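Team,

Forwarding the record for the chain on the shared tracking sheet. I've put the sequence and predicted structure together so nobody has to dig through attachments.
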Amino acid sequence: MKIDKKRLTFFVVSCMIIFLIELQANGKLGLDAVEGFNRDLKNYNAKLQIFDRDSKKIASFKIATARTEEEKMYGLMNLDKLPKDHGMLFFFRETQVVMMWMKNTKIPLDIIFIDADNEIASIAENTKPYSLDLISSQREIKYALEINAGLVKELGIEVRQKVQILN
């Protein structure tokens, strides 16, 4: 059976266009729906606490949770300022080594990488705004917390400390 390459190409391209139109119509493509997500303080409605090795609470943050791919892609981009006690927590479906960047992020951040046991696995301090350099979690993680730069040092946050996420 001989397949007409032109017809096959037309069919494949048509299917792709229909698929992309459907994604756009369902809000699954593009960042329009999440553009204001990081600016609306009502979205910072969960809480994350960090405990030292003696189980003493050393930090508490009001967090917005980035669960969808669009929310994770947008993160804290284009945000002019973040209240000191606020942050954004990125959820990953599976434990994995994560690479992040600071594209279109106006403010310097500390990024705290958290493993599946709710323990701090690694920390990237004072990340550079707008940088396209990749920031690695270095170990497999389940979550990444972005907070204002300097807070890791100021609050004494360290690797192997425990984290509790409250809704």
